[in-house]
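Re: nicotinamide-adenine-dinucleotide structure - here you go.
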Amino acid sequence: MSKTITLLGSTGSIGTQSLDVIRAHGYKVHGLAANSSVDLLLRQTAEFQPETVCVVDESAAERFRTLVSGLSKPPKVLSGKDGLTQLAAEPADIVLNAVVGIAGLAATLTALENGRDVALANKESLVTGGYLVTNAARKNNVRLLPVDSEHSAIFQCLQDAHSAKTLEKILLTASGGPFFGKTRQELEHVTKEDALRHPNWSMGAKITIDSASLMNKGLELIEAVWLFGLPAEKVQVVVQRQSIIHSMVQFSDHSILAQLGVPDMRIPIQYALTWPDRAPCPAPELDFTQLKSITFDTADEETFRCLAACKKAIGKGGLAPCAANGANEEAVKLFLQDKIPFLKIGELVEAVVDSEPFGQPYTLSDVYECDAMARSYVNAHV
Ligand code: NAD
Ligand code: MG
């Protein structure tokens, strides 16, 4: 069936892989959005001919307006944060949110509030505003379709609604990242180049650092709690170094289902777009003649404090996960600028989570206020 997709964050790692899937299926693109990569966005616009394009950065948007005027069918061009939410509200069958960071939250909420199903790669939407996002989906009777590979795996394992009622435990797999098995002492002087070298996945810089610090797994644990409704104690992180098992679910009879495949995000991206159907995918098949072993380990939370801090945060509830996320976004930025050492990321995230009790119900403006508090805490403690 032909679908119309709006793709936010189209120039990133998930964005460009999403366009591979969209191209393979001949889906129509209603809208594209990115922060500032105008040259790539221009090529995407020429190929996919969207009605609307949003360039969030204002000066990049000016440049883009000049560039698109030369196209035979120029799109409407929006800009700024408001442009992004305006685009998210425009008609489409699915809004695929592949923006990085809390910058994606408002668009997720707007899309849901306007009755659009959201294919969600932007896990930070659920981490910072899980209560608002899940309420908006419920109230407007629309779906959150997971794109994150682990959550897609869990979603796929829960398609039998009858068994899903007896879901007892989620086994959230983790690659362990480039620093698996290292001690804190060994991690004292690692560089951003070391941290950016992920063994199995090629991704944007922020999530690659999050994978090295295990913050990504902490964010995913919180994401899983919101998507699948189990308490955090029922989500167990299992290190699966080869990233072949993308996650597992355990039912009341202790039977376990897993989803396997090559580490290629086009499989979960496509499942979110074709659901409930399956279709041929541009990703290769898993070759069991080459796969020698699948190994399991436990995650070292003493070394990787980000994961411990995220567990503490979801335990505290309210805005604590938002604070953990804000602290991490700021700390990762500082680490990528060589302003703080690697281990400091986890120390700062944990310190912010420990800094306040964090009350229960919240509004969108509370989320932004908490995010700003966490960021200024980080900047005051480097
Ligand atoms: P990326 O850095 O490669 O791309 C980010 C995209 O967001 C770009 O198109 C960029 O222009 C846009 N963007 C950045 N700041 C923006 C802003 N302020 N407003 C609007 N757009 C903005 O990131 P990525 O690796 O593609 O990750 C995107 C999201 O998907 C993240 O939330 C990440 O955690 C999640 N995710 C990524 C992967 C992966 O394999 N890359 C896997 C699972 C989940
Ligand atoms: Mg993931």
